[in-house]
Structure formats: structure tokens, C-alpha cells
Amino acid sequence: MTPMQALRGTRDILPDETPLWQWVEATARELLYRAAYREIRPPLLEQTGLFERGIGEATDVVGKEMYTFEDRGGRSITLRPEITAGLARAVNEHSLMSQGSVLRLWHVGPAFRYERPQAGRQRQFHQLDVELVGSADPRADVEVIAIATTLLQTLGLKSLTMDLNSVGNGDDRQRYRDALVDFLTPHKADLDSDSQSRLDTNPLRILDSKNERTQAIVQTAPNLLDYLAADSQRHFDRVQQGLTDLGIAYQLNPRLVRGLDYYTHTAFEIQSADLGAQATVCGGGRYDGLMAQLGGPSTPAIGWAIGLERLTLLLKQLNVEPSTAMDVYVVSRGEAAEGKALNIAQTLRQVGLAVEMDLSGSAFGKQFKRADRSRAVLCVIVGEAEAEQGIMQLKWLGSGEQVALSQASLGAAAAELKHKIAAVRQAS
Ligand code: ATP
Ligand code: MG
Questions:
Q1: For domain 328-427, which CATH number applies: 3.50.50.60, 3.40.50.800, 3.30.70.260, 3.40.50.300?
Q2: Model pLDDT for residues 172-192, shown as the tens digit of each residue
């Protein structure tokens, strides 16, 4: 029988990768906490209609990429292809917004899209999602974008670029859409086939077609930024001013429209040249139309999603490796000693030390080798003689210095050991 394998486009995140993921998540959690964002955990399954209404049937995501199935009760269910729509539903459903307040939310978890798997593109992938609901103020746009750039910077990513655009309000978009269709219709035969069908359904998406011939045509198309009404222009000016004041670099890209229909005003994407074809690490924007589209009160909002597979790929390229070193490695041999070792490990963990215990029962030499590999600072040794005398040996693995300590005094000495371990690690 051939061994079972994970589904195409899904991946196990293995124990040697999880430290990186945990570090990214912990860094994000800390930063978001300090910016007053609160975590929300919605389900992965939603009614299909949520995404049809909240993303739009003319988008690739809804049109081609969703994992949709009928459940045993005959309902149409979809594994979420992104996080925003579910959060918007939850905000409406639980009336999380009170009049005049803002709501700052984040969530991290898997999303599902039926796409052709390749580096940085999977069928089950993970997004970190941040949303600020209830403010139409351009400062909200700046705040949300700054959180993304700060996070990426804190993680050590430097060679990133940000594209910025405004798609205006619904009226601006409609006027631009008409102008774009007028411009493109005479070129219809020269467009790629996807773009030809988008001419009726979602013409703005033609702007970011990857097809070369389409791109050449689109280069001379009307500029979306010329179609912004005065209010929209003012909003966009303030966003740009705010970013500049914070020292956040960006370039205007009038062809950046993003795939989702509910976006209004600000749209942005953060890319890395080190990711090949899947260059976009973070995509986001304002979606003032979404809440009402889902049947709730009209509520402005802005947010973004970072793709964690792409982010961790970048960090791996930079050789970022969060430490998985243990503080203490406990070796023991002989029945009495092994019992004591369990107690010692327990005591040391209680003061907050990371302790790994060797369970092999093999010769001390082999256990010491594993102690070195664990990159522990301290090795605690209990042999038969130590067990008999009620002591243990403390071996500082860096210097080789070894001292005896009585088992009875370990409790009292543990806190001091912890300090010393921290000092040794600091010095190395
Ligand atoms: P792309 O143009 O690469 O398909 P997108 O516009 O479909 O991206 P969004 O819907 O904006 O992506 O999702 C936000 C982020 O989630 C993306 O910038 C990317 O980092 C990540 N992402 C999207 N789809 C996938 C996928 N199939 N596999 C891995 N990451 C993904
Ligand atoms: Mg996509």
C-alpha cells in the first residue's frame, strides 16, 4: 500500500519550521496588542452566499477558486477563501459596533483557494488579517498600513516596496469603469480571453492582467486617479501625507485595483522582489461598502491580509532562525537516578527554564552528545553515585566547569540558576 500523502496544495508545517511561525505570530500579537487590536476567531466554514455577496461573483476568488460543497443537510458551504468577509459577518451578527465607536480586530488562520500550487501559492494557506472598522478617517488608513509596515520591519524584512492607489468611491469607480470600457472595447479582440470576459463583468481587473499584450494596451488606458471626485482626492491626499509623515515609502500605482469588489478609496500592496512570481506579501485596502452589502448598517472599514507562507519564505531566505535552544538538558542513568531526574526537570521548569530530559537510558557519552546538540547552557547529570549521595552534577556546557549540588537544595537554588543561565546566554 502506498503511504498516505497530504492533499496537493496543502502542506504540513513541520516542527523545525514552527519556531519561525510562532515567532512571526508572537511578534504580530504583541505589536497588535500595543496598537489596541483585539483577536477574533471566526469559523472556517461559512455559507457560500457570504462570499458571493461579500467578495463578488465576478472575482477569480468566487468564480474559480472556492472550495464549495453541499453538506449533509443540502446547504451550500464554503471553506473561507479569505478572512475579511467572515469578520464583517461576525461584526454585524454580534452588533460589535456601537454607534460612533471603532473596532480594531485581528485574526490569523488558514484560508482555502483552489489554485495551481507553486512556490508561495497553496490551496490551504494562512493569512494574518487586520481590520479597523467604523472609521472613514484617512488616519485609519495610515494606522492600518503602518501596522503592516512596522510588523514587516520588526521581523527584519527590508527590501519591500509598497504600491498605493485610490479606487475612489462607488460613483468615481462607475465613471472610471465606463471610461475604461469605452477605451478597451475597440481593443477587445487583442485582449487575452480572461480580460475579454471581464470587460462585461469586472473591467477594472483587466488593469492587473498578467498577459503582456493586455498590459501593453492597458498602459495607455485612462488613469483611475483622474476620475476621483474632490472628496476622494482629499482623502487620498491625507493618506499620502500621513504615510510621508511616518516615513513610510510608497509608489503610486494607478493600475492597482485588487480583486475584490468591495474595496473603496485606498488600495495597497506590499511586494518583495525576492519572491519570484508570487511577489505580494500583503494586500489590503478600504472597503466602506462591505458591511452594508452583507445586510448590516453601512460602516466604513479598512484592513489587510499578509500571506504567511510568503512571509515565512522570505524570512527563511534571510536565514532568520528563532532559537529553539533548551536551557537545561538532564541526563541520567540507572533506575534510582532516572526517578530523581524527573523531579529535577520538574523543579527547573517550575521556575521557567526550558528543560529537556534524556529518556534513552544509553551510555553517558551518547547522552552528552545529545546535550550538546540541544544547545542547552547547563547539563544536569544524575548517575547512580549521585542518586545514592542525594546530589547532582551541574555541568556548564560552554566552559566545561562542573560543580555538585545537593538535590535537597535545588528548589532554593533554581531561581539563581535561571539568572546564571540567562547571563551565560547573554554573554555568548
Ligand atoms: P495573488 O495575486 O498572489 O493571487 P491575491 O490578490 O489573490 O494574491 P489576496 O486575496 O489579496 O491575494 O490575499 C492576501 C494575501 O494572501 C496575498 O497577498 C498573499 O500573500 C496571500 N495569498 C493569497 N492567495 C494565496 C495562496 N493561494 N497561497 C498562498 N498565499 C496566498
Ligand atoms: Mg489570487
A1: 3.40.50.800
A2: 988 999 999 999 999 999 999
